[in-house]
């Protein structure tokens, strides 16, 4: 058996990485958290301002803009609070995140798409879709 | 035979044994926890999808514009964002080996978390008292399911926070406790990320005509 050999191999491994032990986990500096916080405050305040002051006439415009701000803020949180980058855990974290994003996209867009058409097709005589349905009630 | 020798050699030096055994598990704990968070993200995706589909089916009941109070939501958002950055300060204190600093910042984080929960429960109680509980309409069902699930996460995060503070007080900034702090850090920041979706998709878009 080569167990003793393996053991010394592990020891060597430990020595080589001994100093980096604390750096196994990603962590941010005060500057990172401060930047993330300021950006988040700005990216939160603008959507609230847009909605509360009814800046845009069309709801769809407002919705698109605030969803954009939300997406940017999620990325800001990922980078500055969760310290996400391509190197964390040898790239496995970002891979898991991207995979989740793909599933998220399928679940959300799929549900909305399918259910919207269900609503339209299940309501004979209300060909204009879900918006009329709300008025009827 | 050689196995016995190897084992003897390992246990002869406890610190070497500790590092050899713990180096990789520590990394995989964080990756594993991240994958748990991603699966949690999918759970929320389901609830968001339900709200996207049902959020405008009022069944003659109140609409989002009638029941949501945006100033309260803004205050709630501020509490959660502040708790996120104070948790960051706790992590920085832990990196600087300041046990007292870590515990104090964790306590402040917990206080903001409780403020958030208090406002949210008040909102829920107010809605239910006015007859706008989850059974009123599909909109309110999906609203309570989504926002309530997020609130439950914050509740359990707060319980975990208190537990961690007790462990820190008892054992100090040991590698185990640092690992636990990292996990809760990811959990707490993750909840803030979900809240971005909630306040944008549920509250802000809910009051749009």
How would you portray this structure in words?
The complex is a heterodimer of chains A (137) and B (209). Chain A is flat. Helix content of chain A is 72%, strand content 0%. Chain A has 137 residues and is mostly helical. Helix content of chain B is 86%, strand content 0%.
Highlighted features:
heterodimer; A: 137 residues; mainly alpha; 5 helices; 72% helix; flat; B: 209 residues; 7 helices; disordered N terminus
Indicate the structural class of chain A: mainly alpha
Rg for CA atoms of chain A: 25 Å
Helix content of chain B: over 70%
Low-confidence stretches of chain A: 1-24
Shape of chain B: elongated
Specify the helix fraction band of chain A.
over 70%
Strand content of chain B: under 5%
Largest sheet of chain A: none
Mean pLDDT level of chain B: 89
Order of helices and strands of chain B: HHHHHHH
Low-confidence stretches of chain B: 1-9
Number of helices of chain B: 7
Structural class of chain B: mainly alpha
Let me know the number of strands of chain A.
Answer: 0
Largest chain-chain contact?
A: A-B, 63 and 61 residues
Provide the succession of SSEs of chain A: HHHHH
What is the count of β-strands of chain B? Answer: 0
Radius of gyration of chain B equals: 22 Å
Question: How would you characterize the largest beta sheet of chain B?
Answer: none
Question: What's the SSE blueprint?
Answer:
The complex is a heterodimer of chains A (137) and B (209).
Chain A: H1 3-17, H2 30-52, H3 59-81, H4 92-122, H5 130-136
Helix pairs in contact in A: 2-3
Chain B: H1 2-12, H2 14-54, H3 64-67, H4 70-95, H5 99-129, H6 138-171, H7 175-206
Short synopsis of the structure:
The complex is a heterodimer of chains A (137) and B (209). Chain A has 137 residues and is mainly alpha-helical.
């Amino acid at each position: 058996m080569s167990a003793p050999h393996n053991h010394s191999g592990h020891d060597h491994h430990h020595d080589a990485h001994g100093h980096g032990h604390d750096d196994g986990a990603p962590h941010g500096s005060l500057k990172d958290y401060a930047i993330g916080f300021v950006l988040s405050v700005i990216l939160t305040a603008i959507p609230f301002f847009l909605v509360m002051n009814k800046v845009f006439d069309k709801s769809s415009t407002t919705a698109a803009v605030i969803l954009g701000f939300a997406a940017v803020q999620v990325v800001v949180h990922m980078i500055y609070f969760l310290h996400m980058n391509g190197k964390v855990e040898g790239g496995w974290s970002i891979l898991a995140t991207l995979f989740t994003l793909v599933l998220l996209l399928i679940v959300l867009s799929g549900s909305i798409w399918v259910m919207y058409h269900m609503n339209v097709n299940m309501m004979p005589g209300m060909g204009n879709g879900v918006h009329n349905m709300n008025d009827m009630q | 035979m050689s196995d016995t020798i190897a084992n003897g050699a390992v246990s002869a030096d406890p610190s070497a044994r500790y590092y050899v055994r713990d180096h990789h598990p520590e990394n995989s704990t964080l990756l594993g926890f991240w994958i748990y968070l991603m699966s949690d993200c999918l759970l929320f995706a389901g609830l968001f999808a339900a709200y996207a589909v049902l959020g405008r089916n009022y069944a003659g009941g109140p609409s989002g514009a009638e029941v949501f109070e945006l100033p309260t939501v803004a205050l709630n958002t501020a509490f959660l964002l502040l708790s996120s950055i104070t948790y960051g300060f706790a992590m920085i204190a832990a990196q600087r080996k300041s046990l007292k600093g870590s515990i104090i910042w964790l306590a402040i984080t917990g206080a903001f978390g409780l403020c958030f929960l208090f406002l949210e429960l008040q909102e829920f109680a107010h809605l239910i008292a006015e007859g706008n509980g989850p059974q009123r309409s599909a909109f309110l069902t999906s609203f309570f399911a989504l926002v309530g699930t997020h609130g439950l996460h914050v509740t359990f995060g707060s319980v975990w926070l208190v537990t961690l503070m007790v462990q820190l007080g008892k054992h100090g900034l040991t590698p185990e406790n640092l690992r636990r702090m990292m996990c809760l850090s990811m959990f707490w920041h993750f909840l803030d990320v979900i809240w971005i979706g909630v306040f944008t998709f549920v509250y802000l878009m809910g009051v749009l005509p």
